[in-house]
Sequence to fold (410 residues):
Amino acid sequence: MTRRKIEFTNREGHTLTGALEQPDTGPVRVMALFAHCFTCGKDVVAATRIASALADQGIAVFRFDFTGLGGSDGDFGNTNFSSNVDDLLDAAEFLTEHYQAPRLLIGHSLGGAAALVAASRLESVEAVVTIAAPSTPSHVQHLFADQHCDITRDGQAEVDIGGRHFNIRSQLLEDLEDWSSRNLVATLRKPLLIFHSPVDAVVPVSEAAELYQAAMHPKSFVSLDNADHLLSKRADADYVAATLAAWASRYLEFGDEATPTDRPRVAEDEVIVTEQDARFLRGLYTTRHEVLADEPESKGGTDQGPTPYDLLLMSLGACTSMTLRLYANHKSLAVSDIQVRLRHSRIHAEDCQDCESKSGQIEQLERHISYKGNLTEAEQQRFLEIADRCPVHKTLTREIRIRTEGGQEE
Fold:
């Protein structure tokens, strides 16, 4: 699993901070967006563990701090449930533009309620998962019920939630009340998976029952026996991730059936390159292997794989190292730890004394070979000469003809 820090700007101009968990190898099968619980943050245990486990199964997960929480800008006191929904929509727009459009929305506690609303407004989202979510956002008011009168009278009050102090303002209460009578799943029309613990002391399981009854099929319920509200036990978070991935594979079609990001069919003597996002991320496939290619963030990419020139140098370096090893073994030379260091650059033709071109720029590949051994001076010279016999080296220095053909697919 690879974790990348991400920042984006919401519609209010605030910079929100998030983390994108991605698979270490292979393409991203599905992009998921995670909404955390009320006053929590992207780094709450449930979010980090579930995201990490899903990334290991090919599901990239973007989790971020809502406005005014964690590393995100803004004043929490000015936020409400509606602004949380807006933040989710803005995050989805960012993912669509820079990575992949989210196909899966996951929400924990009040984040689950926000995910239900956001999913109904996002065409790209094909399935929704809630974890310990209330049936209406107004349920969260029990967390500051003792200060309700003070908030209403004075317009705001300091509230202790989970040992942390937050400034709760009357506009939050008004927004929650506005949502209290709305059926969050009435217009969802998308597969829904509900996780809830029968012993949840924060949001009772009866809230899950109301959600389930109101939702249209396909819908599923999974009981998290003995789990607490925050899924603080690793086993509970891992169970949610494993069950979620299995369920999602049925509705998002990233299992056995082909999707645009699945492995293509590759013939024995060919390589296929596919798009993994709308920018530079590409999947490179042979019959049995796959790797990603990308560009660094400074050039508009996501830096999830080597650049095309990196791959070119890797090809030359790997071939060089293999050729030298074969030669050393054949000649019984005591050579170990062969290392090939390469660099690509462009130089002016007039600066190159032994080049045929005398004007313009020339592509230059620098190759430095190091190794451990006890070779004579003659053996060392011959060893370096053998590097030029590498098949890839020969290919690059011969006349090359590239034929291009193709056309629009129906």
About this structure: The first strand starts at residue 2 and ends at 9. The radius of gyration is 28 Å.
